Amino acid sequence: MEDRVVAEGWPVGHRIGSEAGLAVDMGVCRHTLREAVRILEVSGLVESRKGKNGGLFVAADACNFACKTFSNYLEFVQVDVDELSAIHRALTHFVIDQAMAVLSQAQIVTLRRQISDLSILSAPEQIPAAEDLHHALLDGVGNPALTLFVRVLNRMMLDASIFSTLSDEQWVEMPHRLVNLLVDKLTAILDGDRDKAFAISEAYVQGCAALFEASSLADRQPLDEGATQRAYDFLPRAKPLKKAERVEQAIRDLIFAQGWPVGRNLGSEAELGARFGVGRSVLREALRSLEQLGVIEMGRGGRSGLRVISPDPAAVIETCRRHLRRERLDAGQSLRLRAVIEATGSPAPARIGPLLLSILA
After folding, report:
1. pLDDT digits over 8-26, tens only?
2. What is the pLDDT of residues 305-323, one digit of tens each?
3. pTM of the predicted model as reported, rounded to 2 decimal places
4. What is the C-alpha to C-alpha distance for residues 165 and 227, in angstroms, rounded to an integer?
5. What's the CA gap between 361 and 351, in Å, rounded?
6. Count of structural domains within the chain
7. Are 156 and 203 contained in the same domain?
8. Cβ distance 137 to 183 under 8 Å?
């Protein structure tokens, strides 16, 4: 099914077929088909819809899922802020050079309009609007791997801000400052001022590093519920909306709060369902992406219960490759981006750079 979606180039929302029809077409039983569909749903490639006009459809959230999987993995393996900054700086500078080389006049006009519209928004509204503006710039550059990697780093910064240890005054000031730097950087790009864009970019990277270092995620400290609620009140877009997403977040918080104890049993399905007030189906959906990352596993028999294990980079690599195949990353784009990453000279222990290169290999 994945090969068919990629080969045909079907757009988001395209109906692939019904469960019964696809099972017959592929010569498998419906149980096998459902298991395949579950794998592709977790990857963000497809989604199932119920009802008269239901069936299997090409999903809209493949990039979001890849970003979530990748950023979750980096949070679990506790990346070094120096390497994070080195990669962030290299990718940001590459975006500047690529944007100034390929953006059309029509794209420049559209981006200037978005910048102008952002100025009339309130501070909380400016943050998601600035994120959308940044995504529009990346889309204009047209390198799906570059888009994915930058969005992963942006998501890490957003997660860091949610679990920030900064005071209320500092916390409100930092995102506002970063939004202003982002707007100034984009304006310099659109004006064709490369040196100014690079200088502003450096201040932006340093600000993001400071935000990350001031987060509980940076050193796996217990999470402050008050800080988390502060972030959700200020940034409603960051709050998990689905019940399964909230349970997944709660399990991640539990693992971090306990110091990520590899081998520890977090409880049986029944115990976890009672703890979080959800049924088995919601709990299984919440566990799925963490299981795919290799962060947890559900034991069997005498080893029954949910155990904390070491994250599996292979799952991240395959999820991102799957997305980039779908987006038709070409060899030239991959080679240029590999050269940028290899030139960063990231300090040891390097975790991000090797993973990026493995995805592009």
Report:
1. 778 888 999 999 999 999 9
2. 888 888 889 888 988 998 8
3. 0.82
4. 7
5. 16
6. 2
7. yes
8. no
